[in-house]
């Protein structure tokens, strides 16, 4: 009954507009995700934007700008947990990071709408849609570009497989050859392989010249007792 007595048509209209804008923009962002068959699609993004808008609008109604600011902190942390739920790890691959980031942006879009900044909400939604749509060809172009090993930062390993009886001498030769090529060795791991041993030398360098390491491994492969020599790299992240 108290709600009817203190009903303010102007405030009600303001809330209606905020929620409508948030729902429309969240739907637009989610439609792009739904079209690409992502885990968090149209309904998820629409509801995230709507919920964020409702919380911020309620905070402003109860305590003005300070109330909205306090609510925003909780919205940000809450959406962070929600976004983590769509991130999947499959072996060495991680999926869903872009979808989680989109959910985060949907929440901020809704927060803008709830804080009575519809123009900024529309602008952010446009940027989100633009990022998910127009940056895709750029990502594809970068991924197809050949990798310059000398320009990348990674962990590089030189692997040498040899007979067991020459373990110690070849370990010393491995370190000596690499350091002679100006690639200091940080660590050497020994892995037993039946009657052979695999020596894995981790380099201190975070970037290399592929042709130089190719030459080093070819030199190592030609040593007596060595059956195989190669080098590999992996991300340092």
TrEMBL record:
User: According to Swiss-Prot or TrEMBL, what is its membrane topology?
Assistant: Multi-pass membrane protein
UniProt GO cellular component terms: plasma membrane
List the transmembrane segments. Answer: 12-30, 42-59, 71-88
Every copy of the MgtC-like C-terminal domain together lies at: 156-231
Query: Out of the domains of life, which is the source?
Result: Bacteria
Q: Which Gene3D superfamilies match?
A: 3.30.70.260
Q: Which residues form the MgtC/SapB/SrpB/YhiD N-terminal domain?
A: 19-139
User: Main site of residence?
Assistant: membrane
Location(s) in or outside the cell: Cell inner membrane; Cell membrane
For the keyword Membrane, the answer is: yes
Q: Which InterPro entries match?
A: MgtC-like_C, MgtC/SapB/SrpB/YhiD_fam, MgtC_SapB_SrpB_YhiD_N
Write the record's keywords in alphabetical order, separated by commas. Cell inner membrane, Cell membrane, Membrane, Transmembrane, Transmembrane helix
Family of this protein: Belongs to the MgtC/SapB family.
What this chain does, per the entry, is described as:
Virulence factor required for growth in low Mg(2+) medium and for intramacrophage survival. May be involved in regulating membrane potential by activating Na(+)/K(+)-ATPase.
The protein's name is Protein MgtC
Q: Which organism is it from?
A: Methylocystis heyeri
